[in-house]
## 1
Amino acid sequence: MSNRQNKADVILIGAGIMSATLGSLLKELTPDWEITVFERLASAGEESSNEWNNAGTGHAALCELNYTNEKADGSIDISKAIKINEQFQESMQFWSYLVKNKRIRNPQNFIMPLPHMSFVRGSQNVSFLMKRFETMFTNPLFQGMEFSDDPEKLKEWIPLIMQKRATNEPIAATKIDSGTDVNFGALTRMLFDHLESKNVNIHYKHRVVDIHRTSDGLWEVKVQNVDSGTVERHTAKFVFIGSGGGSLYLLQKSGIPEGKYIGGFPVSGIFMVCNNPDIVAAHHAKVYGKAKVGAPPMSVPHLDTRFIDNKKMLLFGPFAGFSPKFLKTGSMFDLVTSVKSDNLITMLSAGAKNIPLTKYLIKQVRLSKEQRMEELHEFIPNAKSEDWDLVVAGQRVQVIKDTEEGRGMLQFGTEVISAADGSIAALLGASPGASTAVSVMLELIKKCFPQHIHEWEPKIKEMIPSYSLSLMENQELLHEIQTSIVQTLDLAGKDQSNLKGNMNTFQKA
Ligand SMILES: Cc1cc2nc3c(=O)[nH]c(=O)nc-3n(C[C@H](O)[C@H](O)[C@H](O)COP(=O)(O)OP(=O)(O)OC[C@H]3O[C@@H](n4cnc5c(N)ncnc54)[C@H](O)[C@@H]3O)c2cc1C
């Protein structure tokens, strides 16, 4: 690959966690390749990857009830949970490699140990949670998970949630201490700082407005300087469209057949953030509840301890809602302009199928703060409105496509869409999201660089020892990896809060 001006080996569009991860993997695999990044905003990790725009859960399926469904025969299907857990283990291994090799430093600035819990009310939900626990706790990936329906035990685990709670309904929780809170914004910025130090050309305030194939088989991107309005053209052999909610627009611009008949459905998010330090100190976990009937999986409410700017915080949400924007900083016309002749029927079919969901989201957007407090009361019965503020989170654009089940089906996962020759790829969708960035980008590398994968495999295995293996079936390797990760990422759990003491302070206040 050559070095002509404006000609890179790889162009990454967007400076979120996905481009940061792909850029970092490629820099390790092939350090000489020239990589150029274009980002429309002033710095890295400002959209969905920003710490205030996502929930910061290191999704390992330890507490998210929507990853474990009850089958018709009453048994619990944990296959999705196993997949997500193994994907997260790949992310942890890569981050650990980066820290060990001094590519990034101070892991406590982006990852903290934090118990992950599921909390349910009502006898039906309690029996579901118990069955789920019984299916999971013997699995090596979920070792250490505990279950309790004893109010006294729950008071120890989650005093804030148990305070002033009526005792006449069945309640239960599971707890596992190997969970994490991940500041994906901080991690994204660290990775871009590292890439910059390795001579990656990063152009902030540069918006990609068009992409097309040149006659010599390269990809040319048309880039506009956001401040001056001037336009430049850059070419590369490989382009990654890692533009989050902006990816669909650029995929459509590329004109590749694989990008046709696909649409996007934006779902917005709102968190409530606690402004009372005594309440913040009285809770230490991510506690996931069960989605309400009719609610989409990404609106499962959770009460989360978060670590942002080295400060402990408490956030509740996200409340899902509807906004036609595809990026938080996007345009009100994003949804309308994403409808093209090829995806019109797909989009109309999705619209017809998802009227109840759209109605639900519009209703959610209109909720007053007091109505949102009612949802919070299910977690903290005596929460007071003055202790909580609303903050707008990021946008998630769910993929809409035609599948065997029908036209215009709404998808809740992430999808890599790539050209048949692997010269361009886009990442669509947002769940489980940032947590699985490493495994999703490894999948992309396998798809788009088949000619190099054999040569790169030893290095991939050095960075991610479980690559292409099942950790569940290799318990020795799992143990080895986990021991090393805990040490390198400093996850031994020294931030064990004195919850009982803190709760006393809160009650006196
Ligand atoms: C409310 C909410 C909660 C979430 N919670 C979690 C969670 O708990 N755990 C988890 O793992 N994941 C979570 N996610 C998902 C996660 O945040 C995303 O999957 C992830 O951040 C996506 O990263 P990205 O790099 O693809 O996109 P982004 O971070 O959005 O980055 C895309 C970048 O591309 C830029 N861009 C767009 N268009 C252009 C253009 N034309 N030219 C140049 N630049 C462009 C944007 O400005 C942006 O900086 C959550 C998401 C939301 C919205």
Note: The chain has a mean pLDDT of 93.
## 2
Amino acid sequence: MVQDGEHVSSLESQTVAAHSAYVEALAAWEKVVHMASCPICRPEGLTDKDHERRCDSAELEKERRRIAFRDLCDELGYVPEGHGIRLRTSACPTDSCVRGGSDDA
Ligand SMILES: [Zn+2]
């Protein structure tokens, strides 16, 4: 078997891209879920049914990307690090509604 360095590095960049796509989908899903319980973030006129549908499709997308990322990691043999991968923080304008809002001092 021949080790193809270029193949490995392009696989690694694919994996990094798949990871950031997954992180994006994860953030989008968390945001959709958050909207259901947050009076500030919840869009006006959003029905429970609409919300449920949005949650379902966001979760499906998140799972799809997670599996794609995991498969690439399996193929690569390790989880790539140090490529600016980081989780985005919540986009909620009132941070307190995410954390429970208990520190009111
Ligand atoms: Zn909120």
Note: The pocket of zinc ion is lined by residues 34, 38, 40-41, 92, 94, 97 (CB under 6 Å).
## 3
Amino acid sequence: MRLPWPNAWRNGRCAKKKENCDTMTNSPVTQFGAPDAPYCDPATARVTIIPAPLEYSVCYMQGTRHGPQAILDASSQMELYDEELGCCPIEIGVYTRPALDYTNLSHAQALTATGQAVREVLERGQLPLVLGGEHSLSAPPISAVRDYFPDLTVIHIDAHGDLRDEYEGTQLSHASIERRVVDLGIPLTEIGIRSFSPEEAAFMKSQPDVAIVWGYQLANGTAKIPWERLSKHTYVTIDLDAIDPGEMPAVGTPEPGGLHWYQLLNLFREICQRTTIVGMDVVELCPMEGQTRADFLAAKLVYKMIGYRFIGEVARDK
Ligand SMILES: [Mn+2]
């Protein structure tokens, strides 16, 4: 007879324990979801989370270097059973490595270190999931993942096009990240865009391998995601300012009219049904006092992404 719950859940191994409430205020959370040891073993994990507290080219609100730890802290208070998927996604194994240390590194050196951390995860056959930090960190991970999956395509969910050739005098800027992806020759699909410069509009006339689904199209129901552009292997980069600022206020450059929670989850679930995600990042959380809902949204989004990605590989009760 089939058990009504996965064994681990029945035994309470992935149940949230009350004592976490006491420990989190004293010491920083080191493992996403604060699960029991079997689920964060680096040797058996399917996902390695890379906290990347990068902050070099932020132009408006500062503080995104605190984003990764805020996500880890919030994740420790998150329930680990996914009622939609009928399972505990943490059971696939999610290891969080120590945060990258960018002390005394130039921006370029910090980006190289980020790419190297992703390569180490790929070498172990695990899925790299980078927590930012500012968006400029995405290019080296995408380049590293492409070395392992040459057919790679990229989905970029963001309020901003990030297609400028350079911004404020540097090609490494967060506002140029997707231009670097285009430079790598990787087909790019942008979703949720609602802040675009004249320079980017002119660039699009050069017919780069970029498709854009605009924010207004998502809002009025005319959006058509060009699924046919996706290859077998896809990297997804999510700038949290893609989400409506009413739900995600803690970002450096908020734009009105963004994606809503379930809209984003449905989008992400469909991405997982149509392609295999082989690398991910969630960037630009800029924790703000009194806006803990943003930290919790980011943590839960990361967990939902892991669940959708690995559904079918973990025991389910429905
Ligand atoms: Mn953005």
Note: The pocket of manganese (II) ion is lined by residues 158-160, 239, 241 (CB under 6 Å).
